[in-house]
Amino acid sequence: MTLAEWRTKTAERIDGRAIARALDARTAAEIAAIVRRDGIAPGLAVVLVGEDPASQVYVGRKIDACRRVGIVSSEHRLPADTAQDALLTLIARLNADPRIHGILVQVPLPAHIDAGAVLGAIDPAKDVDGFHPVNVGRLSTGTGGLVPCTPLGVMLLLDSVLDDLTGLDAVVIGKSNIVGKPIAMLLLEREATVTVTHIETRGLADIVRKADLVIAAAGAPRLVRGFWIKQGAVVIDVGITRVLQDDGRTKLVGDVAFDEVQHARAVTPVPGGVGPMTIACLLANTVKAANQNK
Ligand SMILES: Nc1nc2c(c(=O)[nH]1)N[C@@H](CN(C=O)c1ccc(C(=O)N[C@@H](CCC(=O)O)C(=O)O)cc1)CN2
Fold this sequence. Notes:
The protein is an alpha/beta fold. Helix content is 40%, strand content 16%. The chain folds into two domains: 39-145, Leucine Dehydrogenase, chain A, domain 1 (Rossmann fold); 149-276, Rossmann fold. The protein has helices spanning 3-7, 16-38, 53-69, 84-96, 115-119, 133-141, 149-159, 180-189, 204-209, 274-292; strands spanning 12-13, 43-49, 72-78, 102-105, 169-173, 193-197, 213-216, 234-237, 241-244, 250-253, 266-267. It is globular. The structure holds the ligand Nc1nc2c(c(=O)[nH]1)N[C@@H](CN(C=O)c1ccc(C(=O)N[C@@H](CCC(=O)O)C(=O)O)cc1)CN2. Residues 57-58, 104-107, 129, 149-150, 240, 252, 270-272, 275-276, 278-279 line the site of the ligand Nc1nc2c(c(=O)[nH]1)N[C@@H](CN(C=O)c1ccc(C(=O)N[C@@H](CCC(=O)O)C(=O)O)cc1)CN2. Catalyzes the oxidation of 5,10-methylenetetrahydrofolate to 5,10-methenyltetrahydrofolate and then the hydrolysis of 5,10-methenyltetrahydrofolate to 10-formyltetrahydrofolate.
């Protein structure tokens, strides 16, 4: 395709909601098969400490999503001043409960709690968030395990537009343990050539401009501008920031200036891109855990 043709093109909008719905349908069918086989539905324990408004919304959506596909959820909402030991005691109880196949602790946790200690206390076989060091190690060595939900969702979105990632230049913007680093591992597994960058990276725009795949996960609204993006690149926007508008209302904004990247081959919107995949992949991971621990 010539440059002139690309200029008149509109990027494909990758519909995360539709792809998540399709994954949920497959998950629901697998759950029905598990119930027929074992007589018991997969169980997911959802733990929320404190009253962070966004976390409350996400946890509510996870519980609703469980109901939709047939996962039995148990909800554990604890006050913000919960002692770390009390949380660890709850996790030990959930680890030992045979009706619970998956455990997730919503993050961020309050500042007085050592998140590493808490996430590391979850049985790796029930760690449906894939945050436990055992699962992190398995991902980085390509030896299976449970994979974090947002990175898994990002890969499914890429698969919806590309057959093969072999040899493609991928740039990940963001180095968090739960998004940036695992995405880099998953891209490497698929033979992409991966550059991990972050907000302090020098010459970030020039690095991104060379990429066939751009995964923006820096949590910096509209960081990635149109002129950063190569013609025909695939752009996945993981950032979700609520910003205040001039009229006093708030709206969700991604890390990518969506309106400026229409010369890309495909781009995810915010909202409606990666976010819905996070919850769909959590449900899929719960089924995977139930199948592995029957
Ligand atoms: N234990 C975990 N904690 C957190 C995770 C996680 O995977 N495990 N990820 C994020 C929050 N998160 C799920 O927990 C999450 C974020 C966003 C969405 C989503 O559907 N976003 C929508 C818009 C939401 C809105 O309207 O406010 C979208 O992008 O379309 C789902 C889940 C941090 N914590």
